[in-house]
Amino acid sequence: MRWPITLSTAHLVMRPWRLDDAEAVYRYARDPEVGLRAGWAPHASLEESKTVLKDILMAPDSWAITLRGREGMLADEAVGAIALRHQAANAADPLPVHEAEIGYWIARPWWGHGYMTEAVREVLRYAFLVENLAAVRASYFEGNEGSRRVQEKAGLRPHHHVEGVVDHLGATHTERVQSITRQEWETSLAADPTDAGTIARQQSEAAGIIDRLPLIALVRSGGQTGADRGGLDAAREHNVPICGWCPPGGLAEDLPKPPGLLALYPELREGPGQGYVERTAWNVRDSHATLIVSPGGLEPRSGTEMTAIFAERMGRPVLVLEGSNVSETATEALAWLRSLGANALTLNVAGPRESKMPGVYELTHDIMANVLG
């Protein structure tokens, strides 16, 4: 593949420079905010822009950045520049063989749109796949955070720095040099491909994954006797992962000594606060919804009522099942969960302890088994 060559991305066309680009160059390069960040003076006249165009920009591996179909833009108007230089801009910091340096700028109206990162990524692709380079560098003067972010988003990472670099205006800077090797680029590309075909396949795959997600992805509970363990055990039997916050030492009424209920449910985590109040709040907080199994309703001033209050105050959906018929309550719970309009829910399961309401373990277990099944 020989020069001249045009590079295209989703939003950009990067083409070789032409003599008729001089007016666009002058229009944008006279902005003092553009050149000063890179250490060159704003263009003072159209004639100066013509000279820069002919002597610097119109060279191999140097492209005019244009925007695809942008409303209000002149067709094919150059709004920035990007180049792959095989000799470093700073002669005191030469490039190794088989490496190059990317230089770039874009007009101020297009800052913050992601265009420059998109352009740098495409030039990296060209550098590694077409020119077969071993590494590519880019640099910025310390304090130019916009340029630093562009480079980091494109995958470049700190390589070295040079003190006392004097720019074309006579100002002295610390120059930060960043680099990416071909191997690093290939690894990042495999992890986050950007070509249109791969993105389309990923979107299709994502839709399929969402469709296949279960209604409930995690069952959360504090692990106490009764409703808590009924929910956890039913989840285990249906291969649904479990989690939850429990009191320090795994404290439970039937397991008062460490590791307590953590020996039965090592997936649970200890909260730092003593007692049950904090873990009750955290289990509500860390769930999409809370299901309370409490035949006959909520006991006033109980931990179960506290669970419902936490859910309401945190804006989490909560359903209290007050009946004792497994089929009816499971149907009610399933309809409620589906009404939430989401899959892969983390469901907090709560209710009275077994000592307070004998049989609540079995009831909760059977309700959850029906829901999960």
Radius of gyration: 31 Å
The order of strands across the largest sheet is 1-2-3-4-5-6-8-7
Number of strands: 15
SSE pattern:
EEHHHEEEHEHEEHHEHEEEHEHEHEH
Q: What percentage of the residues does DSSP assign to strands (E)?
A: 15-25%
How many separate helices? Answer: 12
* pLDDT averaged over residues: 92
What percent of residues adopt helix (DSSP H or I)?
25-40%
**Which regions contain 5 or more consecutive residues with pLDDT less than 50?**
none
Largest sheet: 8 strands, mixed
Oligomer: single chain
Q: What is the overall silhouette?
A: elongated
CA distance, first residue to last residue? 59 Å
**Structural class, from secondary structure content?**
alpha/beta
In words, what does this structure look like?
Helices cover 37% and strands 21% of the residues. The chain has 12 helices and 15 strands. Strands 1-2-3-4-5-6-8-7 form an 8-stranded mixed β-sheet, sandwiched between helices. The mean pLDDT is 92. The two termini are 59 Å apart. The protein is elongated, with a radius of gyration of 31 Å. It has 373 residues and is an alpha/beta fold.
Pick out its properties.
373 residues; alpha/beta; eight-stranded mixed sheet; 37% helix
